[in-house]
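Let us practice reading a record.
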Amino acid sequence: GAPASSPKARAATLHAGELPAPGPGYTGPRLEPVDAPITLEWAMSLVWHFQRNPHVPLPARYLCRLIDEAERILDAREDAEGAVHKITLQGGTSVNIVGDTHGQLQDVLWIFYKLGVPSPANRYLFNGDVCDRGTLACEIWALLFSFMAVWPESMHVQRGNHEDRLLNMDMHCGGFYDEVLSKYGRHSGTGALVYEKFARIFARLPLA
């Protein structure tokens, strides 16, 4: 296993509340206390924030809260369904299948605008390759995880070949690892910690 002080080991045990709350200069959505329920109102406030301020990342404290919630939901889904996850559609329910978004946040915001945000009646399947190439994959993940937290059945994400450590660290065809470090810290340890939180999610996603 990883040394106890490594980012990988810390990612397995760290509670989002251990990370500092953002200072007064941050004007985006806050989630305090950090264990407060993630509501539709909060998820929509994140949509509006990224529409207006796409280059103002969600603070690590709140992003890790979303990642931890997604990990809990994915673990529960696997316990209930096994490795193959099912999307059950009933009358009046639709599913929107979204291909490779590759860090293009504006594409995801446009899709939500045209087709509606995720809900029990308007479900989404993101078919992998959320990461790499573009520079706003963290923001896409934050949106997907926030709606997953509100309505788990409304959001399904599969693992593409870009939800992978080796590709994420390849500057020629990847870049997600560098994106995370550039937003959350190259030298403080927080950036590597956030990436390892993402890596735990990737390991839980069903393969596309």
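A brief commentary: The CA atoms of residues 28 and 52 lie 10 Å apart.
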